[in-house]
Backbone:
């Protein structure tokens, strides 16, 4: 069955752990663009409950899918996570179903999926997820403009190891690629939550700190997601957190008089600095950040829909499935090098406790 470009794309979600985010996103989508067409899972109690909640059929084999399914979101671990997500993606592609696959992937798996997609005449896209979130898109857009206007001097970044693949994709979006690239450990080891790395990315000096700890099945043990600063001769642009804010901190320019004084008296200040010296920092976009509930339901959901729009555009345009694939192949190869340099993650013990807010940190200081 062939879908007309004006018809909605019927989507099956494969996997129901992180796949819950995809199901929630599809429920918020315009019915003229995307429609949930089912869940493909192993039939756990969770999958049964979600199929009932979203009013879609539950399948446990690719062969059971009806012919009117247009695309599948494969939200199942690949070999790097001990799963068979890449094999599932290839089976769907061979059925003539377009695939959006959640990262990360080993570069060999990614190359295999692309080959199958081309042979089957369907589209295959990797979703690195976080680059599609609005605050990250805002940072990438501002950073691209910054490095066009001024010379980048350094990149300083932090991330949890499980989101290191998409950290590289974010930086690839800023610099239009990752090379020249190199990285080597500088600090870390047993008992240290952050492993330090130094090298270069797109030829720019790079300092990277990775929380190389994981707790199987529980991402909430991670101490952070992403924090990135692009330094230039004009100032620094920082993505303070995956969900914002984005902060521009210009460098200080202090003109001195002939005697070498840079701080004029009050009577001279207006003459010396008629326009002031500018702000010490400002937000690019909003200063606020979403609640976790809003992030997961809305910011993440909108990111999923943005990725699906990209897939739909490729389908409707009928482009070669390999067109544009070099970026994610390069990211996958670089990520493989990075994780090999980091070594196997340590186990992060869950640390339960009541959440803290900024108000909790604003208590009276004891002297």
Residues:
């Amino acid at each position: 069955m062939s879908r007309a470009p004006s018809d909605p794309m019927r989507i099956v979600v494969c996997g129901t752990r992180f796949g819950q985010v995809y199901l929630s996103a599809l429920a918020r989508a315009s019915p003229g663009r995307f429609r949930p067409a089912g869940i493909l899972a192993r039939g756990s109690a969770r999958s049964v409950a979600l199929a009932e909640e979203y009013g879609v059929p539950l399948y446990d084999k690719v062969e059971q899918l009806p012919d009117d399914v247009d695309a599948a979101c494969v939200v199942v671990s690949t070999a790097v996570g001990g799963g068979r997500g890449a094999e599932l993606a290839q089976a769907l592609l061979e059925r003539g179903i377009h695939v959006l696959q959640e990262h990360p992937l080993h570069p060999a798996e990614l190359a295999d999926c692309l080959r199958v997609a081309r042979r089957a005449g369907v589209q295959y896209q990797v979703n690195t997820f976080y680059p599609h979130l609005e605050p990250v898109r805002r940072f990438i857009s501002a950073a691209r403009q910054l490095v066009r206007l001024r010379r980048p001097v350094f990149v300083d970044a932090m991330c949890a190891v499980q989101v290191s693949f998409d950290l590289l994709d974010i930086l690839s979006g800023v610099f239009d690629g990752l090379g020249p690239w190199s990285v080597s450990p500088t600090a870390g080891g047993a008992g240290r939550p952050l492993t330090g790395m130094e090298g270069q990315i797109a030829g720019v000096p790079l300092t990277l700190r990775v929380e190389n700890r994981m707790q199987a099945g529980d991402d909430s043990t991670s101490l952070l997601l992403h924090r990135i600063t692009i330094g230039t001769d004009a100032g620094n642009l920082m993505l303070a957190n995956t969900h914002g804010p984005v902060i521009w901190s210009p460098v200080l320019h202090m003109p001195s008089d002939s005697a070498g004084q840079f701080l004029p008296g009050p009577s001279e200040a207006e003459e010396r600095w008629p326009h002031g010296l500018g702000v010490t920092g400002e937000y690019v976009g909003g200063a606020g950040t979403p609640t976790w509930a809003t992030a997961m339901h809305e910011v993440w959901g909108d990111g999923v829909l943005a990725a699906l729009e990209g897939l739909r555009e490729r389908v409707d345009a009928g482009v070669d499935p390999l067109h544009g694939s070099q970026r994610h192949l390069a990211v996958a190869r670089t990520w493989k090098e990075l994780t090999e340099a980091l070594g196997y993650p340590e186990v992060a013990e869950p640390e339960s406790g009541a959440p803290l807010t900024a108000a909790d940190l604003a208590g009276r200081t004891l002297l």
Notes: Residues 132-292 form a domain with the Dihydrodipicolinate Reductase; domain 2 fold (CATH 3.30.360.10). The mean pLDDT is 89. The CA atoms of residues 245 and 287 lie 6 Å apart. Residues 292-317 form the longest helix (26 residues).
